[in-house]
C-alpha cells in the first residue's frame, strides 16, 4: 500500500475534465488521500498545469471541448514521460481502450465514477508505478555518475604514472615546468594555471610557468610569502580549495580579479608535512575551468599528487644543476661561464604584483 505523503505536494495529481461537478468531487476525494490536486477544464489548461511542475498521475476525460483525450495523452507523454495517465469516458469501446493503452495510458475509468475507493486503488497503483520509474531513473543516473567518476579516477591515475615516468626524461627546468603546467591544464580542463617558486631567501614567490595569464607579463609577478592565497599556501604548507569565491567565508570581503568562482592552490613540498624537515618550494594554482563546473576534492587530490611528483623532480633537477656547476668549476671554466647554481627555478628581478589570480595582489570588487 502507498504510504501517506510526507508533506504537501508529495504526489501531484491533475484532473482534466470539463464536467465541473465530477472534477471537483474527484479532486476533493483525492485531496483527502493526501494528493495535491489541480483541475483543468480543457486540454490547453491541462498542458499549462503540467508546465507548472511535475505530475505523478493525470486523470483525463476522453472527450474534451478543445481536443481529444487521446491527443492530450500523447502531449502529456511528450512533455512528462514518467506521468501516468488514466483516461475517463462515459462509453468506452474496446478499440478505444486498446488504442489508449497502446498510446501509453496506464488504465481507463468508466464514468460515472461511483466507487471512488476503486478509483483510488487505480490511482494509487499508478502513483506507485510513477515512483518506481523515478527511482529507477535516479538509480541509473547515480550509477552512470559513479562509472564516470571511476573512469576519471583510473584515467588520472594512469596520467600520474605517465607523468612520473616522463619527468625523468627532462634535464631542463623550463621543459619540466612547461610539461607539468600543460598536464594540469589538459587534465583539469582549465583556462588558467601557474607554477610559482620561492626565491633563494624564501621570501617571495615568482611565476616560472603559466597558462592563461594575459593581463600582465607572468615573469614580472612577485608575491611576498603570506600575501594572497598563494602566499598563504606557501607559508602554511596547506592547500586551499575554494568551490565558490563569492560565498567562501575564508575569503571574507576579498575578491580576486580574472578568476572564476572556483580555484585551488597547492604547495610544492619536500619532506613530511608539518615535520621540521619540511621544505616549501612553491605552489601550483589552478582556476577558470572551461566547462564552468566547480573544482572539487578529486581535482585537489590530483593536483596534490602532481605537486608531489614535481617537488621531487625539482629537487632532482637542482642536484643535476649543482653537479654541472661543480663539474665546470673542476674543469676550470672561465669566469662568467658558470654562475652560481640556480635554486629550484628562482625568479628574476623584482617586478609587479599580479593584479589577479590566487597568488596575486588582492583587489576588492567594485
Overall description:
Residues 3-9 and 342-366 have low confidence and may be disordered. This protein has helices at residues 20-32, 43-51, 69-79, 94-102, 116-167, 173-188, 228-236, 297-330; strands spanning 12-16, 36-40, 57-61, 84-89, 107-110, 190-198, 204-211, 222-224, 240-242, 263-270, 279-289. The chain has two domains: 12-137, Response regulator (Rossmann fold); 168-330, GAF domain (Beta-Lactamase), CATH 3.30.450. The longest helix has 52 residues, at 116-167. The protein has a six-stranded antiparallel beta sheet with strand order 8-7-6-11-10-9, with helices on both faces. With 366 residues, the chain is α/β, with parallel strands linked by helices. It is rod-shaped. The protein contains eight helices and eleven strands.
Write the layout of secondary structure elements.
Elements: E1 12-16, H1 20-32, E2 36-40, H2 43-51, E3 57-61, H3 69-79, E4 84-89, H4 94-102, E5 107-110, H5 116-167, H6 173-188, E6 190-198, E7 204-211, E8 222-224, H7 228-236, E9 240-242, E10 263-270, E11 279-289, H8 297-330
Parallel strand pairs: 1-2, 1-3, 3-4, 4-5
Antiparallel strand pairs: 6-7, 6-11, 7-8, 9-10, 10-11
